[in-house]
Design brief:
The complex is a heterodimer of chains A (about 375) and B (about 750).
Chain A: H1 2-14, E1 20-25, H2 32-43, E2 46-51, H3 54-63, E3 73-77, H4 84-87, E4 110-111, E5 114-115, E6 118-123, E7 126-131, H5 142-147, E8 157-160, H6 170-175, E9 181-182, E10 185-186, H7 191-205, H8 215-223, E11 227-233, H9 237-244, E12 248-251, E13 255-256, E14 259-260, E15 264-271, H10 282-293, H11 295-305, E16 308-309, H12 312-322, H13 324-331, E17 337-338, H14 343-360, H15 366-384
Parallel strand pairs in A: 1-2, 1-3, 8-11, 15-17
Antiparallel strand pairs in A: 3-15, 4-5, 6-15, 6-16, 7-11, 7-12, 9-10, 13-14
Helix pairs in contact in A: 2-11, 7-15, 12-13, 14-15
Chain B: H1 6-71, H2 74-78, H3 86-99, E1 105-110, E2 115-119, H4 128-138, E3 146-150, H5 153-160, E4 169-179, E5 187-198, H6 199-210, E6 219-225, E7 228-233, E8 241-248, E9 251-253, E10 256-257, E11 260-267, H7 268-319, H8 333-397, H9 402-432, E12 441-444, H10 445-463, E13 466-470, E14 478-481, H11 483-500, E15 505-515, E16 519-528, H12 535-538, H13 550-556, H14 562-572, E17 576-582, E18 586-597, H15 603-613, E19 625-628, H16 632-645, E20 649-652, H17 655-664, E21 669-673, H18 681-690, E22 698-702, H19 707-716, E23 720-723, H20 728-742
Parallel strand pairs in B: 3-9, 13-15, 19-20, 19-21, 21-22, 22-23
Antiparallel strand pairs in B: 1-2, 1-5, 3-4, 4-5, 6-7, 6-11, 8-11, 9-10, 12-14, 14-18, 15-16, 16-18, 17-18
Helix pairs in contact in B: 1-6, 1-7, 7-8, 8-9, 8-16, 9-14, 10-11, 11-14, 17-18
The chains are: A alpha/beta (about 375), B alpha+beta (about 750).
């Protein structure tokens, strides 16, 4: 399948004309294509958009480095920018960044000090959604959540989230004062890491959360009002509002042992592989980049795919327009930290994922897990020559 | 000890000569067949083990090669140092596992022993200590590929998702080498690629590769290392089994190189079925032969047994005295000859028996003649003796001078001796002929002994010896016994005692040894202080006509029959008689007899009867007595005596006359002689007694003193019997009894 996709991309490159842009994205949202349809109408550009699985995209970016069969632009999570060594993303000139773009989001698009992506969607930060039918008031501390378990009907899960995805692990690590990267170095074999691993898997062991319940499982359980709490991204707000109506409540993540649980926030960025921004289609691409940051397109981001735009004007307008829930969603961004998008981060995510599951299976102790992750990460970083 | 049977001996002979050699031959052949089968089985198993081991080595080599190819790919070789290759490496691992069915999992471990990537996902849960150990063992062969044995059941279950019981895993390791731009280290070892092969999968491949099943019933396939069973197919064999094994080298187990053994166990039965079938057939054949032999022997035995049984039956008939001729229809000549011999023998024996029977008849006839002679002699002697004794009694009652009285007494003594001799001879002949029958009447033995002492006191007094009775404080002792015979025995003993004692004393003692309601054991002892008997003579003392010393007869007289008669009578009473004697000092005869106990004493009647005698007055009898007697002398004696008693009488010379007279006239009593001419006394008595209204008492008077004669008379209805020579006292008592009783 992927071979067919890349074949089409290759075909597109060599058959393109002046106003055609070949785009690959990893957005699963079904309305995402319509979004580009409207953009194309506004700009007069012809946009060939193709959805590609994130993992496949990573592989292909690595395998096809320095080859010419790359697409013009990709819309990917900012962490993909860490593959710039292979993908040869174009550096983004400051002039291409709109004044209305939230400058805080630019940190997610920098690799080795260079801006190589244009944020167009922000958020992705984790929130605590809860069903007011079961939970009457917001919780302030993690222990409050655990105390509520006996009050729930037997068929209702206390809390759920996509347990095995490391994005959800970050708030717990932060509560134990851990960071994945410090001073450009992976920090995976620290006491904080050990404690966080033990705590999270301890929740599973104590039946507070089900490790086997993945994203879809958790999402469905909350929608069907079979879970009292869910930790999920801001992107799920609209879906939950439709499903739970007035029963839906949302709040920032609570504190853990008195320490703030800080999720990452991230961005979806436009990136230009194989330095396409300086290539033959640069004009069209620059035009496309600017249009993507303009208020009209940014508003569509909320309207069509319910993601948070990066345009601060649009954002303010929407806060006033959408009310408390949206306000909470936006305000929660203040308690987040940007997800690093360095090449190192790609390695760290990969290593963390392995270590997390290895510890959970009982194959390794927390200390061995730390040792394994740190060693693998350091070797990979050293061999990749990235920072 | 029971003698062996002919049929059994014949059967065992056939068994020994026919069946046993057959059995031995069959056993030898089957044994040889068995050994050949086992040898072939061993060769076959050895070939199978080697072939399978070689095939497995071939499989391992192929998988090693495939593993090596994979390890040389960039994504795998660099993965431990470049985690970004993870997704791609995972796909490669997945493809590798899927295209090598024998490999259940493949993992990449880094130089620390940590798993960097693995497929399937369960492989990521492998324990660190295990992966570290695999890593260390992979270095044993200096960066070469290794085949490691992992005896870990849980590991197998993890990969195969099934309980494979005891089935170990093999881990093929290929060192991951990364070429790098470095002069000092152009090739860097990054880690190890480990491929896991369940032995069960390897064995499955083996079956497919060999195109025949590895396992079948009765077979067990084992993969072992250092005597540890890693994989076992088939159940443990507890029967006799054959084994063979082959080695696969270059295998690491327990941190050291150790050969992997491919072992095949198989029950002997898989190879010895034909042997068993042959054995069963042979057994069947032998059993058939056995049955045929058995039936043949049985048939033959029956053919022999029946005639033998017939001969045995004939012999038994012979033993019983039935010497019948044998029907000679035997099948075999030998039996015909035996039958002829038996017939000849039967004929001879029959002749002999006939002869013996004739002799016996003659002897019996002779005995009867002798008895008759004795009876006749008794009659003939008693008849004149009756006259002698009668006249002596009459003479003694007449007035005689002193000398005449002495003479009569001497003659009387002589006649008593003569009568004794005659009675002894008659008694002895009766005993010899078993013609004595004991009569059982109540008798007071104390009174009997008293009478005997009184009887012998005069003769003792005459010899100046003391005659004493010792009855041990007994006043009476009434028992059921034949008083006459008891008295006869004691008289014999006392007579001898008196006869052989010149001085001292004679003692008759009576003791009750034991008494119950049924039996009374009485002991009589006759003790004298006479001449005694030599010890060597004692045993012969009871023989007839024997006396202790030959001169005794001359000195003391006697027939020598007394003790023989006494012994005979005591034997008849089922008693015992013993002699204790010392020559010159005396003799003690001891008799022990069991008599029937009498609980009521009837002596009073006897005393009264005796007392009546003194009051008899025959003159009051008005009717005459009829005396039937042919002998004129006896007629005189009886008539004289009756006349003395004051009785009237008439004479009849024979039975016919007596019968006529008694028919026409009523008599007070009839004294009837038995032996008379014309008509004997018994016939006459019978006629009279059969007459209606005839009730005259008849007293038989006969010289026939034989018991059967007396019984015959009594049975006919004759009132009493008096033996000749007539004892007048006895006659008087009888007359008194019947005359006065009748009146």
């Amino acid at each position: 399948m992927q071979q067919i996709v890349w074949g089409l991309l290759f075909f597109a490159v060599f058959n393109s004309h002046a106003k055609t842009i070949n785009l690959a994205h990893t957005m699963k949202h079904e309305n995402f294509s319509q979004l580009f349809g409207k953009l194309a109408e506004q700009s007069g550009l012809t946009i060939h958009s193709v959805f590609v699985d994130q993992k496949a995209l990573k592989v292909r970016l690595v395998q096809n480095a320095h080859t010419s069969n790359m697409t013009d632009v990709i819309i990917v999570p900012a962490d993909h920018l860490g593959l710039s060594e292979y993908a040869n993303f174009s550096e983004i000139p400051a002039s291409l960044i709109a004044q209305t773009t939230d400058k805080r989001t630019l940190d997610t698009a920098r690799v080795s000090g260079k801006l190589i992506g244009i944020p167009i969607i922000q958020g992705n930060h984790l929130l605590l959604f809860y069903n007011s039918k079961f939970i009457k008031s917001p919780v302030t501390d993690w222990q409050d959540i655990e105390k509520l378990k006996p009050t729930l009907p037997s068929h209702v899960k206390l809390i759920t989230w996509s347990f095995m995805e490391m994005y959800w692990f970050i708030p717990f690590l932060s509560a134990f004062e851990g960071n994945l990267i410090a001073d450009g170095q992976a920090q995976l074999n620290t006491p904080s890491m050990h404690d966080a691993l033990r705590f999270v898997w301890g929740l599973n062991a104590r039946d507070i959360v089900d490790s086997q319940c993945d994203y879809a499982c958790s999402h469905q359980a909350f929608q069907q009002q079979k879970a009292a709490f869910i930790v999920n991204g801001a992107w799920a707000l609209n879906t939950y509002q439709q499903a739970l109506g007035e029963n839906l409540s949302v709040q920032p993540l609570p504190s853990l042992n008195g320490r703030v649980m800080q999720p990452y926030y991230s961005t979806f960025v436009l990136a230009f592989p194989n330095d396409s921004l300086n290539g033959p289609n640069k004009d069209n691409l620059r035009k496309f980049a600017k249009l993507a940051q303009e208020a009209s397109f940014q508003r569509l981001i909320w309207q069509e795919i319910s993601d948070i735009p990066v345009n601060i004007e649009v954002l303010e307008h929407l806060k006033n327009e959408q009310g408390t829930v949206f306000g909470t969603l936006v305000d929660a961004l203040k308690e987040t930290k940007p997800m690093p998008s360095t090449a190192t981060m790609i390695i760290v995510w990969e290593v963390l994922n392995k270590g997390f599951s290895r510890f959970g299976s009982g194959a390794l102790t927390a200390e061995q897990t730390g040792q394994f992750m740190q060693g693998l990460a350091e070797r990979s970083i050293a061999n990749d020559g990235v920072q | 000890m029971k003698n062996p049977r002919f049929s059994r001996a014949l059967f065992f002979s056939v068994l020994l000569l026919v069946i046993t050699p057959l059995l031995i031959l069959a056993a030898l052949m089957i044994g040889r067949f068995y050994l050949n089968s086992i040898e072939q089985a061993n060769t076959s198993l050895q070939w199978q083990a080697r072939n399978n081991a070689a095939s497995l080595e071939q499989l391992f080599f192929k998988l090693e090669k495939n593993s090596q190819v994979l390890s040389n790919t960039k994504a795998i070789a660099e993965l431990p140092d470049k985690v970004v290759y993870s997704q791609f490496a995972l796909m490669q691992l997945q493809e590798f596992v899927n295209t090598n069915p024998q490999i259940s999992a493949a993992i990449v471990i880094d130089n620390q022993g940590f798993i960097v990537e693995g497929y399937p996902i369960t492989s990521l849960t492998l324990n660190y200590s295990l992966t570290k150990q695999i890593l260390e063992n992979s270095q044993i062969l200096d960066n070469q590929n290794t085949i490691q044995v992992l005896d870990n059941i849980h590991l197998n279950e993890l990969f195969t998702q099934q309980d494979t019981k005891h089935s170990a895993l093999l881990a093929i390791t290929s060192t991951l080498l990364n070429e790098q731009d470095s002069l000092s280290e152009p090739i860097k070892k990054t880690g190890v690629l480990v491929s896991f092969i369940p032995l069960s999968e390897a064995v499955k491949w083996l079956a497919k590769h060999n195109e025949q099943p590895i396992y079948q019933t009765g077979k067990q396939v084992q993969l072992k290392v250092k005597e540890q069973v890693l994989y076992s197919l088939g159940n443990a064999l507890d029967k006799a089994q054959l084994s063979s094994e082959a080695t696969i080298n270059r295998v690491i187990f327990d941190n050291a190189l150790s050969p992997l053994l491919f072992k095949i166990n198989e029950t002997e039965s898989a190879y010895t079925t034909a042997v068993k079938q042959t054995a069963v057939m042979a057994a069947g054949l032998i059993i058939t032969l056995f049955i045929i032999s058995f039936l043949l022997v049985r048939w033959l035995t029956l053919r022999l047994h029946n005639p033998l049984n017939r001969i045995a039956a004939i012999s038994r008939e012979f033993a019983l005295g039935n010497y019948k001729q044998v029907q000679n229809n035997f099948h075999y000549q030998e039996f015909k000859d035996i039958a002829d011999s038996l017939n000849s023998m039967a004929e001879t024996i029959d002749i002999q028996i006939t002869s013996l029977q004739l002799e016996k008849i003659r002897a019996e006839h002779s005995e009867q003649v002798k008895s008759q002679f004795l009876a006749n002699m008794s009659h003939e002697i008693r008849t004149p003796m009756n006259g002698i004794v009668g006249f002596l009694q009459l003479l003694n009652k007449s007035e005689l001078s002193q000398d005449q009285t002495d003479f009569v007494r001497q003659i009387n003594n002589c006649s008593d001796v003569l009568l004794t001799v005659i009675n002894d001879i008659l008694d002895f002949s009766k005993i010899e002929a078993n013609k004595i029958e004991l009569e059982h009447r109540q008798c007071d033995l104390v009174a009997l002994c008293n009478d005997l002492i009184l009887l012998f006191k005069p003769s003792c007094d005459a010899k100046g010896i003391v005659c004493r009775l010792d009855v041990d404080k007994l006043e009476t002792l009434t028992v059921e016994c034949d008083e006459i015979r008891v008295k006869q025995v004691l008289i014999n003993l006392l007579s001898n005692a008196v006869k052989f004692t010149k001085q001292g004393e004679i003692t008759l003692s009576l003791n009750v040894v034991h008494q119950s309601n049924e039996k009374t054991r009485v002991e009589f002892a006759v003790k004298d202080t006479g001449i005694g008997i030599a010890e060597d003579k004692i045993n012969a003392l009871f023989n007839p006509f024997v006396q202790a010393q030959s001169n005794i007869t001359r000195e003391y007289g006697g027939t020598g029959l007394g003790l023989a008669i006494s012994k005979g009578l005591i034997d008849l009473m089922e008693g015992k008689i013993n002699i204790n004697s010392e020559l010159g000092k005396g003799t003690i005869f001891t008799i022990q007899v069991d008599f029937e106990t009498v609980l009521e004493d009837l002596n009073i009647q006897q005393v009264e009867q005796k007392a009546d005698r003194s009051r008899n007055d025959f003159s009051v009898v008005e009717q005459p007595l009829l005396i039937a007697e042919d002998n004129p002398i006896n007629q005189i004696v009886i008539t004289k005596y009756l006349a003395q008693l004051g009785l009237k009488y008439e004479l009849a010379d024979n039975g016919q006359v007596a019968c006529d007279k008694a028919s026409n006239k009523e008599y007070a009593l009839i004294l009837m002689d038995i032996q008379m001419p014309v008509m004997d006394g018994l016939t006459a008595s019978k006629i009279l007694l059969n007459k209606k209204g005839f009730n005259t008492p008849i007293i038989a008077v006969s010289a026939n003193a034989m018991k059967e004669d007396i019984n015959k008379s009594i049975a006919m209805g004759i009132s009493d019997h008096i033996a000749k020579p007539i004892n007048f006292e006895e006659l008087e008592l009888a007359l008194a009894k019947w005359l006065f009783q009748q009146n």
